[in-house]
């Protein structure tokens, strides 16, 4: 019965009654409040032992498990000396882990909209979040000086259900914060630390929570409490929910609120890492602080740029948030004034063309404008990003654009199957995890007997298929599918099948239904006598993505046809736990993105660690990871411009590769009953591919390529009250005002119009320029040789700098004597650009003058 009294009338107050564990068990409480347990095998086993069934029901949430543990079980455990001994050992390991002092190095702040740490923390939607979560775990393992900032969502991303028709149902169960491993960050007086963030003239209060990840902390902002209006409380309800305006508000909270939280906690990071453009507003808040501290706007820009890295994660345009000028004005208009600039100048920070009043404010452009360094997430994606952002840098060809890359990777302890880790450890040597990206260690996999490895992997497959049966049964019963069909499907799932997995976000570019181009062919392929094949699918489509949801409907529909019963299976509600089971248990991990839209992809790496062979388009990470003896590939090059023809071709290639290579290789049995040819693929993907895609390699790359250089430039610019930032800003302003007055006075170049240049002769040029008052030492003159690829496309083949021969007053003479070396037809030009000792790359001051 519901009461007619409202809660206020009833004067109800909340009380949190915490389960009291006896002293011997109290370490469990501690362990449950640091997510470290989730990647420590012994700690995981402890929580499993308490109550395996219940633990699973609770999404492996140890805080919830302990909170609801019944007294009889508590007493039993307290009296179980073997359990207590194990508990003490784990606690000792935990303390030893925590006791190691941090490595010296720059202090880093990492910002992300989502974090995939564990299934019980609904802070993630997909790959971006899982990457960030894996990265933080590695930051802890590598013991670096890093903390992270994000939002604590009440509902997070949706849980997926399906209707009988395959319509996606969006479920949003609330998280109970008392059952999460988070704790309030408190002020010295014991009160909860809050920061205020201005949103449309209102002050929104955000509470700060701390989520310990091993040795490091993730700080999370939460607006869902009584201080705020209903609307503002909803700011931290859903991840990627709501409209564009809602997203804008969330990004203001993350960026601006995040920087305020850092300040309030007295943390003083040297380098800021923006994981995706969602966090772009953090740089605006930092600008404001620098301006308030006495720097002029252009100086503040230098201070912020010198300490910021922006990582872009997708070449899909829809993946880059943008807001109309009108919308932005409603929220951030006052910032322009606080920064000492006009509103037009403010909006220009997020535009490709600052003078185009119709152009939206784009978070990627903003992030690029205020970050000295930018990177993509695989080698290929780095190149695609250079291409994508070339319009920001007129005068440069894509391969000159300063955007670099660090290829994504995965956190080994999170994604490896325990059994395999134990098996690897028998031959990989002692403490090998500290050197986990070293291939020489992994090559010892060849010391393991084929049959032993095959059987270990087979057990993982059986575990996966057991899970599939159980899950499918529950899903189908809930959907109301007929019992006959349900049992028909369940009975046809064969443990000896070759199992392929395809699971990821259902964005249309990932082409989940490519396999169904030709159902007849697919039918023959999965129904060969004695060579059963199973395809497992899973994944969520964004609630607003009808195209993605259509793909799910199609797969569910196919999976119910009698000829595909137990062969094509869709599992509802993809999440990190399912991802583990799948990537550990399948034989082949399949990925079929439209080139070149898969920035990296990481689930294939999880598979690789576990010896699941990949079969994928040579896009993203697989373009780097693929080797012919360690998996299969669909070619990178596009054959057809028209996508439907390309899909048809790719589907043909998939069927062909399956029929002619993968299936025969897998089922070719030797005297030992297994396929040694298959096991060679398995061992090669473990030995030659997996180590490169472990998180340690990625973290090392970030330090080497970005964090260390940024820490250096941050230190250089900030010294003596930002003296260098000021000088550098003044230099830039000076060049900007004078640049358009540069003129050519004399050009004495070999006459390439009338004569060919024989190889062996020297190409001479001498050019005199009126510098319009710019110091000649600030100018670099280059000759650029291009080769024309198409009407619109040229490729840079060679750049050589001139020497400054003479400089008097406004006159500067540059000379060049060049050995042309490469024969052929080129187009060339003389490019004058700025140079300065603080310039990290040519485009840091984006001025080009063509002679
Ligand atoms: C690893 C993972 C992803 C990322 O998959 P991609 O291969 O990058 O598409 C997405 N969702 C979950 C739950 C994951 O564990």
Automatic annotation (TrEMBL):
<dbReference type="InterPro" id="IPR052182">
    <property type="entry name" value="Glycogen/Maltodextrin_Phosph"/>
</dbReference>
<dbReference type="GO" id="GO:0008184">
    <property type="term" value="F:glycogen phosphorylase activity"/>
</dbReference>
<feature type="modified residue" description="N6-(pyridoxal phosphate)lysine">
    <location>
        <position position="606"/>
    </location>
</feature>
<feature type="domain" description="DUF3417">
    <location>
        <begin position="21"/>
        <end position="121"/>
    </location>
</feature>
<dbReference type="InterPro" id="IPR024517">
    <property type="entry name" value="Glycogen_phosphorylase_DUF3417"/>
</dbReference>
<keyword id="KW-0663">Pyridoxal phosphate</keyword>
<dbReference type="InterPro" id="IPR035090">
    <property type="entry name" value="Pyridoxal_P_attach_site"/>
</dbReference>
<comment type="similarity">
    <text>Belongs to the glycogen phosphorylase family.</text>
</comment>
<keyword id="KW-0021">Allosteric enzyme</keyword>
<dbReference type="GO" id="GO:0030170">
    <property type="term" value="F:pyridoxal phosphate binding"/>
</dbReference>
<protein>
    <recommendedName>
        <fullName>glycogen phosphorylase</fullName>
        <ecNumber>2.4.1.1</ecNumber>
    </recommendedName>
</protein>
<dbReference type="Pfam" id="PF00343">
    <property type="entry name" value="Phosphorylase"/>
</dbReference>
<keyword id="KW-0808">Transferase</keyword>
<keyword id="KW-0328">Glycosyltransferase</keyword>
<dbReference type="InterPro" id="IPR011834">
    <property type="entry name" value="Agluc_phsphrylas"/>
</dbReference>
<dbReference type="Pfam" id="PF11897">
    <property type="entry name" value="DUF3417"/>
</dbReference>
<keyword id="KW-0119">Carbohydrate metabolism</keyword>
<dbReference type="GO" id="GO:0005975">
    <property type="term" value="P:carbohydrate metabolic process"/>
</dbReference>
<comment type="function">
    <text>Phosphorylase is an important allosteric enzyme in carbohydrate metabolism. Enzymes from different sources differ in their regulatory mechanisms and in their natural substrates. However, all known phosphorylases share catalytic and structural properties.</text>
</comment>
<dbReference type="InterPro" id="IPR000811">
    <property type="entry name" value="Glyco_trans_35"/>
</dbReference>
